[in-house]
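PROTEIN DESIGN WORKSHEET
SECTION A - STRUCTURE
LENGTH: 312
C-ALPHA CELLS:
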C-alpha cells in the first residue's frame, strides 16, 4: 500500500466545477479521507473503509484497465463521427475501429493482468490522471490521433472522479458493509454531485456538462462489461447494466435534445460494440425495436443482457 496526499484528490475533484469548491472543501474536511494505492491486487479495487481513519483504497491495475477502456471508447466515438462513416464499406470502418480492438482486449482480457504482474509498477496515479499515460502499452496508444488521446484522457479523468465521489458517499453516509441499496445511494450521490456542478458552472456552451456525462457513462459502461461477459454474480451490488441505466436516467436532461441524444447515443453504441464482440445475436428487426431513439435502444440492449443473464 502507498498513501497519496489528500491534497492531490482535492485538487483533482476541484476541477469538476469551481462553483462547488467550498462545498467540496466542507465534504472533505468532514470525512478526512486517507487515500491508499494498492499496486499488487488483480481486482478492480475501489473501496471505502470506515474507522478512526477513513480510507479510500484504489487498485492501480483496475485504474489501468479503465484507462484502456476509456481510450477504446474515444476511438469508437471519433470513428463513428467521421464524415461518411455510414456509407463506408466494411473495410474502411474496420480500419477506423481497429485501434479500439487492442485496447478493449487489453482492458477486459486476462493477458493484461499477467503482463502487469510480470512487469511490475513504476508509474504513479498522477501519471494517469494528469497526462493520460501509464501502464497501457505504448503500442496500443500510438495509433490514436490527438483528438482520440484528448477525449480518452477526459473520459478517464471524469470516470475516476465518479469513483472517488462514490467512495466518499460511503464514508459520508457511514455505510457499513455493502448492499444493493447502499451502492445505489452512493451512485446517486456521485452522479448528482457531478451533474449539479455543471448546472452551476459558468460554461454556457454545455460542453463541460456533456464531458461530465460522457465520463459518468464511461465508468458505468465499464462496470457493465462483466455482466455482458457473464463473469460476475453478486448479491451485494446491483447489476452493472441497472446502475448504468438508472444513474443516467436520473441525470440526463430529457428536455435537452442535444444532451439526451448525444449521451444516450454514446451509451447505445458502446453497449452494441461490447455485445457484438461478446457474440450476442441481434434480432433482424433491431432497427424497428429501437425506433430511432437512443434511450429506447439502450433499454432494448440492456433487456437482451438481462435475459441472457437470467438464462445462464
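SECTION B - SEQUENCE
RESIDUE ASSIGNMENT:
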Amino acid at each position: 500500500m502507498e498513501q497519496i496526499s489528500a491534497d492531490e484528490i482535492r485538487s483533482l475533484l476541484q476541477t469538476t466545477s469551481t462553483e462547488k469548491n467550498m462545498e467540496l472543501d466542507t465534504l472533505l474536511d468532514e470525512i478526512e479521507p486517507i487515500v491508499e494505492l494498492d499496486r499488487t491486487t488483480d481486482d478492480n479495487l475501489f473501496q471505502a473503509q470506515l474507522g478512526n481513519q477513513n480510507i479510500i483504497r484504489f487498485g492501480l491495475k483496475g485504474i489501468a484497465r479503465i484507462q484502456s477502456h476509456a481510450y477504446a471508447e474515444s476511438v469508437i466515438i471519433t470513428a463513428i463521427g467521421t464524415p461518411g462513416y455510414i456509407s463506408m464499406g466494411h473495410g474502411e470502418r474496420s480500419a477506423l475501429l481497429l485501434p479500439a480492438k487492442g485496447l478493449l482486449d487489453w482492458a477486459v482480457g486476462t493477458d493484461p493482468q499477467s503482463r502487469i504482474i510480470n512487469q511490475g509498477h513504476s508509474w504513479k496515479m498522477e501519471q494517469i490522471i494528469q497526462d493520460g499515460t501509464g501502464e497501457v502499452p505504448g503500442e496500443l496508444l500510438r495509433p490514436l490521433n490527438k483528438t482520440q488521446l484528448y477525449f480518452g484522457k477526459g473520459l478517464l479523468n471524469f470516470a475516476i472522479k465518479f469513483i472517488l465521489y462514490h467512495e466518499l458517499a460511503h464514508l459520508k453516509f457511514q455505510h457499513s458493509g455493502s448492499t444493493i441499496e447502499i451502492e445505489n445511494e452512493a451512485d446517486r450521490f456521485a452522479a448528482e454531485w457531478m451533474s449539479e456542478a455543471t448546472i452551476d458552472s459558468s460554461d454556457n456552451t454545455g460542453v463541460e456538462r456533456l464531458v461530465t456525462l460522457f465520463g459518468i457513462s464511461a465508468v458505468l459502461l465499464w462496470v457493465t462489461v462483466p455482466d455482458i461477459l457473464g463473469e460476475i454474480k453478486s448479491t451485494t451490488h446491483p447489476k452493472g447494466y441497472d446502475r448504468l441505466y438508472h444513474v443516467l436516467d436520473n441525470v440526463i436532461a430529457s428536455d435537452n435534445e442535444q444532451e439526451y441524444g448525444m449521451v444516450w447515443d454514446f451509451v447505445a453504441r458502446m453497449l452494441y460494440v461490447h455485445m457484438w464482440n461478446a457474440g450476442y445475436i441481434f434480432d433482424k428487426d433491431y432497427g424497428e425495436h429501437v425506433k430511432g431513439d437512443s434511450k429506447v435502444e439502450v433499454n432494448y440492449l440492456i433487456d437482451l443482457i438481462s435475459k441472457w443473464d437470467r438464462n445462464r
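SECTION C - NOTES
The CA atoms of residues 32 and 54 lie 7 Å apart.
Residues 110-125, 127-133 have pLDDT under 50 and may be disordered.
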